[in-house]
């Protein structure tokens, strides 16, 4: 049992510093089993999703306050009850984890296990806050600070997410140095702008007019005060207000363009790209160091498992430095692991069995687990056999379907269907082409019949393998959906499309399914080597950077909650723009012509009708944060909240822009570059690799620790007896 647990630690890059008595080992296996991990993950997910349904609820058709929709509000205590259940489950998980770990050296528990200790603090705050909410009610108690701490559990239960956060923390000094340089750049050009664009101007002929305002729009709009000038230049860094900020002065004198061009050249194109380069260099180094630490834990766990097998199971080995292969296979059989990894280990032990090898050394034992993170060919698909037909006709059909020309014809039919669908959509609303449209609509049934016959032939030829292949299942489900929609449309409307005055029609649904079928054309990519390599790299990046996506979710969640606390109901339309009737959420459609855009200045929050961009609920807050991160027109939000709330509100949006658009986006670019370069250099050329972990990305750069370092780490375990091998 102990050897199996240590092997599981090695496969999952976990530390071996946990209790090793029978009860603790069984509890440890249970806490890391798939059902327990799934329960904790679902609990964390539900806890995060409560933000959408608790007061103020996001269950409303539109976040535009002018619409007058009624929010769906759950009865009091419902969300708090669900939250209490989630907190109890997470509390039990935290208690179990703290019981299982062991203390090393003289270090305190808090210093050695800060995440577990922090979990107790967050749980205590959350329980107290829930009790206050139940006592006062969410209508009175709007702060609910526990919502800010909910992402903590999401991070605590994700090892790679914690590593990414640690790498970001270690990279912050270099990021801070570049941001300091950026601040000096902004300060210099802000002061220069206050002098270049004063309250009074000099005429082109050089005569100065005291007290006379000549073409003073630049000063009035963008450089009237220091904070106004600073915010204008911050927005200009993202090019969101370019060339608007330049045009008033540029219209007076073209030489003023040099000021804005120099500002953008230095800030946008030099400092920002320098930031990307520094983040790429530093973050990659720190992350590689973190991966080296994980690899060290794997080596320690493998050594621990080897020592347990050698010391506890006296299996009659003739050499003290070797262990029985039979016992090793038994331990592997009792170890929980993914089916792909189990089959890979079986393949690696077969040569020993075929050569009648009864004992393996420590080096051979470790070699079994080398490169195990790169999963090989799909085992489920290979185990599903193709039927062997006795009939000559059936064998002929099978050979025809298995040939590459069958797929070629299928892709050609999909391409023809795409051309037909494009023409149909183009003439759908043209009354003069209705006769042509009706004839083209008949051809759709030809493609439907072909897709039906194609899938039937594949099922006959592939048998069980058809249902084990994702591409075949995808084609089959879409074909069934297309056949169903087309038959319903034929029975209801005949050969004509449904009434185009209504919303989404059956004809539209059929075309949507057709568009999904067009994705089959992506299968021709492997026939073009450069395109196939780029596509494989893109897929690997998406799979390996899930931990970084967790960071994005984390910062979105925290900033959305802070935005709701600070700006809920801050954006309120003028009384004359509000509807006088409470509309039913489902049946009635409110008046959509409430705001006269011409009543406001062009380019403002009101004139652009951004009323739905607010912090009145969690879902709306996420959309606002996305709009600001994209930075297009984000200066509109700065101005609107400055005028309606406070000038200090701009700090929130600038902080979000720095964290999301400057730091996180650059980190994401750096990781993509790192991953792409590594794959391009040859790691993706192995045709049998389907997917790998993020550790496999750095596999070529990892160095195996020395045996002395491994033994020193094992000696720190208080319940483990070290035997030299």
Automatic annotation (TrEMBL):
MF terms in GO: intracellularly phosphatidylinositol-3,5-bisphosphate-gated monatomic cation channel activity; ligand-gated sodium channel activity; voltage-gated channel activity
Keyword hit for rRNA-binding: no
Subcellular location as annotated: Membrane
Record key words, sorted: Membrane, Transmembrane, Transmembrane helix
Stretches of the chain forming a coiled coil according to its record: none
Entry superkingdom: Eukaryota
Record-annotated Ion transport domain positions: 78-283, 403-676
Bilayer-crossing regions: 36-53, 81-100, 120-141, 175-197, 256-280, 405-427, 433-453, 465-484, 504-522, 548-567, 618-641, 653-673
Single biological process term from Gene Ontology: calcium-mediated signaling
Gene3D superfamilies attached to this UniProt entry: 1.10.287.70, Voltage-gated potassium channels. Chain C
Recorded topology in the membrane: Multi-pass membrane protein
GO cellular component: lysosomal membrane
Name this protein carries in UniProt: Ion transport domain-containing protein
